[in-house]
Structures are given as structure tokens and as C-alpha cells.
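Why do we care about 3D structure at all? Because function follows from shape, and shape follows, mostly, from sequence. That is the central idea of this module. The next example makes it concrete: a single protein chain, its amino acid sequence, and then its structure expressed as C-alpha cells.
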Amino acid sequence: MRTGDLWDALGSLDDDQATQVLAHLFSRFEQRRQHCPDDPAAEAFFRNLEAIMAQVLSCNVGRR
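And the structure:
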């Protein structure tokens, strides 16, 4: 599947499905890191996830 198609599919998910996708991604990269603690893809995933969560949470605080 191409990136554009994945983006469209992601946009069509309901909240529960989107949560499941995120949970599965988290679990897969967590397993990768357990098998190989220095896995660059896993490190990038968790670093990006942390940065995105901080950004989203700070924006949500600003709206309150």
C-alpha cells in the first residue's frame, strides 16, 4: 500500500480502530526493542512518539 493510500485508510478509521492501530504499533516496536535494545527503528519510533505526544498534549492544555 502506498503512503497516500495508508493515509486515507487511517483517516477512515473510527476512534476504537485508531487506538488498536496505535496499540499494535507500540507493541511491535516494544518487542523489537526487547529483542535488540539498540534497534534504530524502535528508538526512532519511541522518540517520535514521545515528541508527538508532548506536542499534542501541550496543544490540548492551551485549548482549555
